[in-house]
Amino acid sequence: MRDVAIVSFAQLPSVKAIDPSDEPELVQPVTSQAMRQVGLTQDDIGFTCSGSTDYLPGRPFSFVAAVDGLKAWPPIRESHVEMDGAFALFEAWVRLLHGDIDTALVFSFGRCSLGPVPDVLNLQNDPYYVQPLGLDSISAAALQAQAMIDAKKATERDFAEVAARNRKQAMDNPNAHIKGDFDVDAMLEEPYLSSPIRKSFCSPMSDSAAAIVLAAGDKARELVKRPAWIRGIDHRTEPHALGQRDLTASPSAKLAGQKAGVGEGKIDLAELHAPFAHQELILREALGLGEDVDVNPSGGALAANSLMTAGLIRFGEAADRVIAGSANRAVAHTTSGVCLQQNLVAVLEGE
Amino acid sequence: MAQHCAVIGIGQTKHRESRRDLSIPGLVREAALRALEDADMTWKDIDSIVIGTAPDMFEGVMMPELWLSDALGAAGKPIFRVHTAGSVGGSTAVVASHLVQAGVHEKVLTLAFEKQSEANAMWALSPAIPFQPQLVAGAGGYFAPLIRSYIRRADAHPDTGCMVAVKDRENGCLNPNAHLHLHQTLEQVKASPMLWDPIRYAETCPSSDGAVAMVLVSEKHADRVKNPAWVKGTSVRTERTIFAGRDQVNPEAGRLCAKDVYDQAGITNPMKEIDCAEVYVPFSWFEPMWLENLGFAEVGEGWKLTMEGKTRLGSEMPWNMSGGVMCTNPIGASGMLRFAEAARQVRGTAEQHQVDGAKVAIGHAYGGGSQFFAMWVVGSER
């Protein structure tokens, strides 16, 4: 297979609300920055792919408007996934394997400030039997966290420690939304949102946009000194119905990690997309990441979570550290669906 | 590209205004099981699933592929969701073919669906967006001015659109899966109510429930069937919504998309080298417009092919032998139905609407404000 690498990454700082802003105003700054960083313009891009969901802005075809943030003239090779931008990166990777084009632009955008996101996410459930129950994303995550406690796999203190660690690491990240040195005991005093989930165990609801440039083979080496090569990438899903799954484990992340080759060498760092603190513990176990792995140096989704973009940002944060030389082999991960139903895992590596 | 890709299984539902007998999972399973049976496969043989549908709001389920994973036997497998407006059915098949051609997966199930009876698509297409004038006209209101512009530029015969409607509905009567089975005379079509001048009611597509699925495989699995359809070329092109340089009557993105697939398939004269075409014609006048856009006629001449009957089944260049979007329109699936019907033709499995000896066919889909295009060329020979 052809070697493909991440060569550039740009993001808008994740904040509570980027306002006012329509799709082109979110997309144009990050896509142009990602291309400019490696001296490219839209005319140099072979394939463009984006990820977003209509249910954040509450209108059909919001991605159509996003195209107006690009110089799509002459007309471009372009596609869109109703998934996190990291899945758009997967499609662009597949496209580059064909060999006829050498560069791809991937972007995504998400504004959680436009609606009640935990309630909106209930619309991912079975519309006939589950949606009427009003299972919002926090309540669903609480079922999973409680299952972990019942299985003696973790305690509430473990969840608080994950949240505190991520937000402390985010203090070095100018793009993070929630950061600081938070006290674990104080977190454990917070009221439950949905037992055993407390506010600090949840990711913030952020607005952001992000873009990545991919390049193949020699083109990647030409654009940057040290490309972040995608050595393996795979995604897997699980049964949708919560009752059909062991919520304390993630067989889909485990399988995707194996296919991506996570275990085939030493991992320096991992950027895991865990919107709830307890999910980081599940993912660490599934991917076989030991204590020596630097997990979420950016602060992860617990420090900044713009839906549909947080996954692509994990890829960008991991790639930036490989490109800069501070890591040699990194894992980037994205999840989708209720309680980690679907997982995408990649291994990024320097030369 | 490294690998050849072949279509070895095709299945579709019976399309109707309302499939109240089926849930959404039941609908997608009906199509998928028929495609698997056609490919002599079971769920276990499938490596990966690529699914497409139009806006999630049409059914009220956000990212429905997560929920439909169970119905499609996706546990432990990759499932991927494409959404590119009206072209989505085509783009979804393109993404699936790329997984095979790139060597990422060998046996891919691709599927598209829409259950329009569970929503009101026309008004979902005209939302009120802050600081923009609301169209309040549905898709027909958007496209009618483009059609008027075409008629003026080409000085087209005013009956052209009605002729397309008569022909496509005639073809639809040969297709047991089609939603509409209507024998209509030219006079009947002309007498139907004017909705958006010059689009009459009988010149519009229906709203349908339906799904379509295909099994795409690499070369080494193609001999599971005796008549694979080989993917000879795929392409997608996009242009902006708001741009003064656009020509929405004859969009540059459509022209480039066609040129790209023809180049890949070695086609220099579409009229001579293509045997038949399934093209996205949701309003009848788009047949002459796309005849020109896709290079089957010179600019301004497309309507003459239609009026001369050359696009009829049995004539020189049959278009929409299955009845097309004019007879069946489950929006998210409409594009993939075009791709699948093109593959059926070169496989020789199109039954009553088969073009004798079809060896090369195109499938086409478009979406948005005539700005997203997806096409493929399929052939009976590798």
Main sheet of chain B, how many strands, which sense, barrel?
9 strands, mixed
Instruction: List the helices and strands of chain A in order.
Output: EHEHEHEHHHHEEEHEHEHEHHEE
Indicate the structural class of chain B: alpha/beta
Largest interface, with Cβ-Cβ < 8 Å?
A-B, 60 and 62 residues
For the record, what is the CATH homologous superfamily label of the largest domain in chain B? Thiolase/Chalcone synthase
Total domain units of chain A: 2
* Share of helix of chain A, binned: 25-40%
Q: What is the CATH top level name of the largest domain in chain B?
A: Alpha Beta
* Tally of DSSP helical segments of chain B: 13
Whole-number mean pLDDT of chain B: 95
Q: Choose one word for the global shape of chain A.
A: globular
**CATH class call of the largest domain in chain A:** Alpha Beta
Unreliable stretches covering 5 or more consecutive residues of chain B: none
- What CATH architecture of the largest domain in chain B do you see? 3-Layer(aba) Sandwich
What can you see in these coordinates?
The complex is a heterodimer of chains A (351) and B (382). In chain A, strand 9 (269-271), helix 10 (277-287) and strand 10 form a beta-alpha-beta unit. Chain A has helices spanning 23-36, 62-66, 85-97, 117-120, 137-150, 156-169, 184-187, 217-223, 251-260, 277-287, 300-303, 310-324; strands at residues 4-11, 47-51, 78-81, 103-111, 192-194, 197-198, 207-216, 228-237, 269-271, 294-295, 329-336, 342-349. Chain A has two domains: 4-115 and 205-228, Thiolase/Chalcone synthase (Peroxisomal Thiolase, Chain A, domain 1, 3-Layer(aba) Sandwich); 117-204 and 229-349, Thiolase/Chalcone synthase (Peroxisomal Thiolase, Chain A, domain 1), CATH 3.40.47.10. In chain A, helix 9 (251-260) packs across helix 10. Chain A is an alpha/beta fold. The model of chain A has no long low-confidence stretch (mean pLDDT 97). Chain A starts with a strand and ends with a strand. With 382 residues, chain B is α/β, with parallel strands linked by helices. In chain B, helix 3 crosses helix 13 (331-347). The mean pLDDT of chain B is 95. At the A-B interface, helix 2, strand 3, helix 3, strand 8 and helix 9 of A face helix 2, strand 3, helix 3, strand 8 and helix 8 of B.
